[in-house]
Structures are given as C-alpha cells and as structure tokens.
Amino acid sequence: MDIIFIDELRVSTLIGIYPREKAMPQTVEMSLQIGTVTTSAGASDDIGDTIDYAKVVERLRAELAAQHFNLLEKLAEYVARLLLDDFGATWVRVSIAKLGMMPGVRRVGVVIERGERGEHVKST
User: Fold this and answer.
1) Which tens digits make up the pLDDT trace of 105-116?
2) Which of 29, 54, 67, 124 has the most CB atoms around it within 10 Å of its CB?
3) Residues with catalytic function
C-alpha cells in the first residue's frame, strides 16, 4: 500500500457544542494519510490513475463549509468516510485539531484510522 498525504490543511467549519461555536465557523487543522495503490499512476504519469489531492482539498473545503459537527470525532468520521467511499482509499488516518481553544494549549484534537490496510472498506 502507498500513502498520499496532506499535512496541516486548514478548513473552516461549524464545530462545537457551545452556542458561540454553532454560530461562528472555526478553522480546524487536519492532516490526512490516504492509503491507496499508486502503481498505475507511477507507470502512466496520469492523474486519473491516483487520488487527486487537489480534488480532495477542494471537496473538503466545500463540504465542511456547509456542515455543522458537534464533536471532532464526528468530523473525523465524516472525512474518513468521504475518503474511503468517494475517493476509493483503502485506509485512512485522519488527524483533526481545534486551534487555541484553551489558554496555554496550542491544539486539541483527535486522530482516527479507518479501513484495513490493503483492503477496500465500504460503509454499511
């Protein structure tokens, strides 16, 4: 398995359980590791043979701008499912953090892994 990665992507979304968080978008920072097979792309040199990270970023920015999540865990699950189901990843690691939420703490967040390394996972 090969890994395509996107590090420190900043995305604006409504995230949180408090009224102020539900009213005003926040910037979250995410890093993604996307498991796939890149052999075909390595041979063909064709973007159609791999996961296009520019399309991933564009899709995430558009979808998350229109959503609200109470918890980072739910947001991470949403991102993982999108990568597995819509982009054909076989495995993902999603790290998402809120920035500057508490005095003296730079970031708080969650890291999840979904899928089986080397096996395609479909949602049920």
Assistant:
1) 999 999 999 997
2) 29
3) 98
